[in-house]
Amino acid sequence: QTTQAAEKTYVIGTDVTYAPFEFADKNNKYIGIDIDLMNAVAKAEGFKVQIKPLGFNAAVQALEARQIDGVIAGMTITPERQAKLAMSDPYYKSGASMAVSAKNKSIKSLADLRGKRVALKTGTAAADYALRLKKKYGFTTVTFDDSNNMYDDVRTGNSDACFDDLPVLQYAIATGLDLKIIGKPGKTGSYGFATNKDNPDHLDQKFNAGLKKVRASGEYKKIVAKYLGNGS
Ligand code: GLN
Questions:
Q1: Domain segments of the chain: what residues?
Q2: 178 three-class SS
Q3: Which of 26, 46, 103, 207 is such that its CA lies 20 to 30 A from the CA of 178?
Q4: Domain range 9-91+192-228, CATH class
């Protein structure tokens, strides 16, 4: 014990609710694929993490302001983010999808969004994707800080549709959210862990090294299966 050097603790920002990647359980403890993966990587690489559920956009801003050391939040690897931040190797495939109320019968494709109100989540890849389509399809947008408030706006009929990542929408719908997915997902990219390019410990490289280990050991698969079942 005496020979063991003290392990460094990194502060890692995450989303408030983005199941199955991060969410609070009944006891208000944070669980999810991202949380378990981050802990497994930290264990494999010999460091400690303190997880802070800040909200997605707030977490990214806190990272850019160097108030925290990293972000794991179902965060899509995009060229824009790679220009500003150090992003790890991809660990989960994703894409952005449109969803409407389960009762909605009139919206069957993007073309049906003309004149409609679309709810988006600030600073997300799905919001960027929708904003690129906004002019062509002629819809208006309103923004929210977290996915649940965005879904609520659609459920209550304030907004006609929303855009979020497919695995997150699928999980929410499978666990009772009364929305439905429309069409095929748009390509936005895979999830990665983010840190700053000037992170003194090259936390992105540590994450990549740990990710390799937890993939090789089978632990990655176990973590995903814990939340999504073995069919995933
Ligand atoms: N994957 C999306 C992004 O990176 C959304 C992440 C999130 O809402 N937590 O922008």
A1: 9-91+192-228, 94-188
A2: coil
A3: 26
A4: alpha beta
Q: Are the C-beta atoms of residues 169 and 181 closer than 8 Å to each other?
A: yes
ipTM of the complex: 0.98
Fold of 94-188: D-Maltodextrin-Binding Protein; domain 2 (3.40.190)
48-53/70-71 β-pairing: unpaired
Q: What is the mean pLDDT of residues 25-35?
A: 96
Please tell me the distance from the alpha carbon of residue 168 to that of residue 170, in angstroms, as a whole number. 5
Task: Note the pLDDT tens digit of each residue in 68-106.
Answer: 999 999 999 999 999 999 999 999 999 999 999 999 999
CA of 4 to the centre of ligand 1 (A): 37
Q: Is the CB of 74 under 6 A from ligand 1?
A: yes
pLDDT grade for 187, boundaries at 50, 70 and 90: confident
Percent helix / strand / coil, the chain, rounded to 5: 40, 30, 35
Q: Pick from 36, 15, 20, 23: which is nearest to 228 by CA?
A: 20
User: Which neighbouring-strand residues pair with 165?
Assistant: 96
Mutate to test the pocket of ligand 1, among 14, 38, 75, 92 (most ligand atoms within 8 A of CB): 75
CB of 124 closer than 6 angstroms to any ligand 1 atom: yes
